[in-house]
Amino acid sequence: MDVNRRQFLNVAAGTTAAAVVVSAEMMGQQPSADSRRIRAIAFDGFVIFDPRFVAKRVEEVIPGKGMAFTNLWRTRQFDYSWLRTAGQQYEDFWRVTESALNYAALSMKLSLSPGQRERLMSAYLQLPVWPDVPEALAELRRRGTRVAFLSNLTAAMLDACLTAAKLNGYFEPHLTTDRVRVYKPSPRSYQMGVDAFDLKRDEIAFVASAAWDAAGAKWFGYPTVWVNRPNGVMEELGARPDLITADLSGLLDFVARRR
After folding, report:
1. Which among 2, 34, 44, 195 is annotated as catalytic?
2. What is the H or E stretch that residue 50 is in?
3. Is a pLDDT exceeding 70 seen at residue 30?
4. What pLDDT does 35 receive?
5. Which of 25, 125, 176, 246 could form a disulfide with 19, with the two C-beta atoms 3.0–4.6 Å apart?
C-alpha cells in the first residue's frame, strides 16, 4: 500500500487534516508566463464528498473491525479499477465497489447478510460534503466559473450524494469514467473535461483529492490543485500540482489569481 493511500485511509478513519498551502513557486516550479484564465473546474468526487462516513457506517455494521475492513475495502476499490483499466475489462465504479466489498468480507472471513451488504454499499449514496464545500461552490457560481465532476464514481452515485446534500444545480453534467470506460489516471478520462467544457486544457483547473490523481492531471496538462485534507505526501511520479491546499479556500485564491 503506498503512502498516499495510507493517508487517505487515515482520513476515512477520522484523521483531521492539517492546514497547508504550497504554491508552485514554493515547490520549485514556475507558473507559465502566459497562463490563461481559469474558466472551468473539474472536481474529483472526494474533494466534495467526505469518505470518512463510510468508515463510520462500517463500524456500525461490523463493530470492532471497522478500520481494518474499511482499509481493505478501499484499497481493493483502487486496485480493481486500475487492474480493470490495464486489462481492458471495465466495470463501473459501483460494481467495482461491490466486488471490493465481497473481497474484504472473504479476506476477513466475515459472513455478511444481504441487509448488511446493502447497508454498507448504501454509504456511497449518502456521503456528506466537506464543511467548506457549500460556501466554495456558491462563490464559484458568483464568479461565473463553470464546475463539473470528473470522477470515477458513477453518475447515479454522484447524483444521490448531491441530492442528499441539497447541492443539485451547481454542477454541469457529470464526467464519469463510464463515458470512456477507463479509470483515472488514463489520459482518456481527463480528456472528458476538454471535450465537455469546450475549452483548452490550461483554462480548466483539475482539483484532486489524491496525490496520484493530481499527478495524472498534471501529466495530462491541467492546472492542478491537490486538496490535501489528510496532510499526505506527494507521490514520486515526476509531476507536481500547481497548488497544494488543505481546503477549498486555496482553490478559490488560485482561481482568483488566474482571472
Report:
1. 44
2. none
3. no
4. 66
5. 246
CB 254, CB 225: distance < 8 Å = yes
Architecture of domain 3-50+128-257: 3-Layer(aba) Sandwich (3.40)
What gap in Å lies between CA 107 and CA 224, rounded to an integer? 37
pLDDT at position 59: 96
pLDDT class for 258, splitting at 50, 70, 90?
confident
Three-class SS of residue 49?
Answer: strand
Q: Would you list the domain boundaries of the chain? A: 3-50+128-257, 52-125
CATH 1.10.150.240 assigned to 52-125:
yes
Cβ atoms of 116 and 101 within 8 Å: the answer is no
Q: Is the pLDDT of residue 87 over 80?
A: yes
Report the predicted TM-score, pTM, of the whole model to 2 decimal places: 0.85
User: Torsion-angle region of residue 3: left (phi > 0), alpha (psi -120 to 50) or beta?
Assistant: alpha
**How many Cβ atoms from other residues are within 10 Å of residue 244's Cβ?**
25
Mark whether 44 is an active-site residue. Answer: yes
The DSSP line for 168-211 is TTSSPSPEEGGGTT--TTSHHHHHHHHHHHT--GGGEEEEESSH
* Per-residue pLDDT tens digits for 185-205: 999 999 999 999 999 999 999
Share of the chain above pLDDT 90, in %: 85
* Integer Cα distance of 180 and 190 in angstroms: 10
